[in-house]
Amino acid sequence: GDAPPQRSAGPARSMTRWTARQAADLLDAGATVILFDDLPVRHMFTSDELDILYETLLAETPTSEQEREFVSLARWKPAEERWRAWLADFTPDPESRTLMQAALRQRDEVIAAYERQWDASQRLETLAYPLTIAGMLLSIVAFGHLLQWMGKGLARDDEHAPLAAKHVVVSLWLMLGMSVVDLTWTILAGQAGVMREVNPLAARFLDTPLQLALFKVLATLVGFGILFAWRRRYQIQQATWWLCLACVLVTFRWVIFDTMVN
Questions:
Q1: Which residue has the higher pLDDT, 55 or 10?
Q2: What percent of the chain clears pLDDT 70, i.e. is strictly above it?
Q3: What is the tens place of the pLDDT at every residue in 113-150?
Q4: Mind listing the pLDDT tens digit for each residue in 175-227?
Q5: How many CB atoms lie within 10 A of CB 188?
Q6: Residue 173, CB-side half-sphere exposure with 13 Å CA sphere
Q7: Residue 72 and residue 211: Cα distance in Å, rounded?
Q8: pTM of the model
Q9: In CA terms, which of 56, 62, 138, 181 is 20 to 30 Å from 206?
Q10: How far apart are CA 168 and CA 221, in angstroms?
Q11: Which of helix, strand or coil describes residue 38?
């Protein structure tokens, strides 16, 4: 007898092409695509869904809670049994395991960075007021000291002036206090993500407060040591006066910065 008529493969082929094109577009958009032969394309963009997917697939023995959340990702009741069977039979190959582990590590790093920044913001909020008060007092005292020093005059280049040398010492102590305020503000504001260190050398250590503190302490001690050793020289007295004024302006900047942030 005659053979039974064959069904046309055209509609099935068109559906396969449409599904493949849809999956390709989703992959190009950065989605994770789950595709079974006889089920609609399931795509995921959100990190919460991907976390459940990867953690469950990587688990040697998923818990009942993990399995329930995993199956719920199907988002279609008829597909849940297929997802359940997939989880039971799935063993990730080395490449898939590496990719999923890398995605979870990146998530953990983002969460840890956010938590560090949140903690830093809380520290900044707690210490901002006492730092502002300390900065205002130091800068006002230092500015008054500079005006008094300027009123009495610097020693001439060929003159031995113990009083001018004492002004240098007082200025160094005031600069030390303002430098401590500046360092504390820099660390707190940098960790909270509300400022950027413009000093390229110090910026390298901003993520490691101990190294930044050591760098600034060493640089400050070297500079102060030079100023103190030659404090009786006219040029050093001039340099100290201007450096102290610069510290006053930097401290005022921090006070204004705190006012703007809050």
A1: 55
A2: 85
A3: 888 888 888 888 888 889 889 999 999 999 999 998 88
A4: 999 999 988 888 888 888 777 666 676 667 666 778 888 888 898 999 999 99
A5: 21
A6: 7
A7: 48
A8: 0.62
A9: 138
A10: 15
A11: coil
DSSP-derived 3-state class of residue 43: strand
Instruction: Return d(Cα 45, Cα 26) in angstroms, integer.
Output: 9
Amino acid identity, residue 91?
T
Nearest CA-CA partner of 40 in 1, 83, 11, 84: 83
Under DSSP, the state recorded for 73 is: T
Q: What is the mean pLDDT of the chain?
A: 83
How confident is the model at residue 7, as a pLDDT? Answer: 47
Query: Are 241 and 149 within 8 A, CB to CB?
Result: yes
Contacts of 52 (CB under 8 A, 6+ apart): 66, 69, 70, 73
Distance in angstroms (rounded) separating the CA atoms of residues 257 and 254: 5
pLDDT at 22: 78
Phi and psi angles of residue 161, each rounded to the nearest 5 degrees, phi first: -130, 95
Which tokens hold the place of 61?
């023995």
Distance CA 260, CA 254 (A): 10
Q: Are 247 and 177 in contact (CB under 8 A)?
A: no
Residue 128 burial (C-beta neighbours within 10 Å; 0-12, 13-18, 19+): buried
Q: What gap in Å lies between CA 43 and CA 35, rounded to an integer?
A: 8
Task: Check the CA dihedral 31-113-257-253 and report its sign.
Answer: negative
